[in-house]
Design brief:
By secondary structure, the protein is α/β, with parallel strands linked by helices. The chain is built from 14 helices and 23 strands. The chain binds shikimate-3-phosphate.
């Protein structure tokens, strides 16, 4: 149990209960036990979206019951798709309306905080001829770049209009008959790639997307399982061609635990003296496992056990224990494979021997917050010695962090990364806007409380 300020929500309290006051983050405990992280966020969005445009029913086990997938489900319901209530531990049923079955919604589609919802939805809606859609979201999402999706879709004939020359939501989409296209994307982004592939499903000819490096490939795997005609090739699977015409059929989807959520426990276990943790049922898709490669480079004590394949995705359990860590250096093609784990890897760097370097990660500046600026600011408040760069940071490891008044600045991954940092600080910390964690990991604070008990 937390020892001070008593602001930690009880296991039964809603995560939002943490929002009113700062959450107490007592220093000094170790972590032990087993933890099952919630379902993969990327796979959860896709299971809902692909189920909606398939024919027949899709049954999803292990769907992430968090704010982001709830935003996707709410948008789908607003267009006439039946999605059963999303409750932890219960399967979710989606009654597909087919590739062109969405009704024109009577109001704006609210994507909340979720970039994946907005970007994939833009791809899906661009080809819904004669129908008009408006997409918006919270203040963070309304500040995030959408031209990266709107521009390639315009090459296919899409009509998308928004603020700032079409870059910012609210965005209006007037559905069109789209044409196939050859599109080279300037950034490796699974959201951009997936939006193009979804638009390609009803285009008049084949579409090819070429990325500068491979981003996560959940869309390719799952679209193929639903029946889409899709070929992946090129250098390191960076080229995807989708030929329209195939019908999609409802599937049974089993969502593995999210490696991006597991990453908080992996780093916490590696840096906290005496820690021994097992994270169960974690998705190990190679396009997502960059964090394991980096932790290995650091000399972390991590073992992958019970490796298996579940519904087309590799899965395993991860055992981690505390030990000495070396600095790491990342840049280039590995970045898309760990893009969401960089905030918590920055925390690991603070506890490693030597200078760690993160480069080629300018994408972090356009996530839910500017994660380079926010992590630099918050870790400096704890005494970290680091330099923020345009596309990354360098971090001098081995400097003792101290407790501080921290702030998630509304970003879920920042909230959880700072909670991990607070475990090894000298003195207690507090965290403002801790409720942000509910975007991807509603029970994070309860799991933390249980593992430190
Ligand atoms: C996601 C892709 C990544 C990631 C985001 C989820 C997805 O974004 O950061 O959390 O589900 O496709 P980008 O595609 O912009 O890199």
């Amino acid at each position: 149990m937390p020892t001070s300020q008593a602001a930690m929500p009880s296991p039964s309290a809603p995560a939002a209960g943490a929002s009113a006051a700062s959450l107490a983050l007592p220093a000094g405990a170790s972590l032990r036990g087993q933890v099952q992280v919630p379902g993969d966020k990327s796979i959860s969005h896709r299971a809902l979206l692909f189920g909606a445009i398939a024919e027949g029913e899709t049954r999803i086990e292990g769907l992430l019951p968090a704010e982001d997938p709830l935003s996707t489900a709410a948008c789908l319901r607003a267009m006439g798709v039946e999605v059963s209530p999303i409750r932890a531990g219960e399967p979710v049923l989606v009654r597909g309306v087919g590739l062109d079955g969405f009704q024109e919604p009577a109001d704006i589609l609210d994507c909340g905080n979720s970039g994946t919802t907005m970007r994939l939805m833009l791809g899906l809606l661009a080809g819904r001829q004669g129908r008009h859609f408006v997409l918006s979201g919270d203040a963070s999402l309304r500040g995030r770049p959408m031209a990266r999706v709107a521009k390639p879709l315009a090459q296919m004939g899409a009509q998308i209009h928004g603020r700032s020359g079409g870059n910012l939501a609210p965005l209006a989409v007037l559905g069109q008959q789209l044409q196939g296209a050859n599109i080279a994307t300037p950034v490796a982004s699974a959201q951009v790639k997936s939006a193009i592939l979804l638009a390609a499903l009803t285009a008049s000819g084949p579409t090819t997307v070429v990325e500068p490096a491979q981003s996560r490939d959940h869309s390719e795997r799952m679209l193929r399982a639903f029946g889409a005609d899709l070929v992946v090739g090129g250098h390191n699977n960076t080229t995807v061609t989708l030929t329209p015409g195939a019908r999609l059929h409802g599937q049974q989807v089993v969502v593995p635990g999210d490696i991006s959520s597991a990453a908080f426990w992996l780093v916490a276990g590696a840096i906290t003296p005496g820690a021994e943790l097992t994270v169960q049922n974690v998705g190990l898709n190679p396009s997502r496992t960059g964090v394991l490669d980096v932790l290995e480079q650091m000399g972390a004590r991590i073992k992958v056990i019970n490796q298996r394949d579940v519904a087309g995705e590799p899965v395993g359990d991860l055992q981690v224990s505390h030990g000495p860590l070396r600095a790491f250096s990342i840049d280039g093609e590995i970045i898309p494979r760990l893009v969401d784990e960089i905030p918590v890897l920055a925390v690991a760097a603070c506890c490693a021997e030597g200078v760690s370097r993160i480069a080629g990660a300018a994408e972090l500046r356009v996530k839910e917050t500017d994660r380079l600026a926010v992590m630099a600011r918050q870790l400096r408040a704890m005494g970290a010695q680091l330099e923020e760069l345009a596309d990354g940071m360098t971090i001098n490891g081995g400097v003792q962090l101290h407790g501080a008044q921290l702030d998630s600045e509304t970003d879920h991954r920042v909230a959880m990364s700072l909670a991990v940092a607070s475990l090894v600080a000298k003195g207690n910390s507090s965290l403002a806007r801790a409720d942000a964690a509910a975007v991807s990991y509603p029970n994070f604070w309860q799991d933390l409380e249980r593992l430190r008990a």
